[in-house]
Amino acid sequence: MPAIYIEQITPVWNDFSKFVHVLHNEYDYQNAVELLDNLIDTVGENENHPLASLMELVGVLIEQYEDNNIPEISLI
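Above: the chain sequence. Below: its structure as tokens.
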């Protein structure tokens, strides 16, 4: 990543990282689910929406947390 991007990200990262970060516990997970719900309401299926990639990223973080921390339900 070019240094100019780092310079642009640095001033906003502290605030942004409160919402988007690796999920470490149930509290982080619940906040991410709420954020994703709000993003889905805002973005919908519009792949060109400015927040579409953020919605995708939050979904990936949630999926990763679920894969690592929530046991699968076995069908009997």
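The two ends are 49 Å apart (CA to CA).
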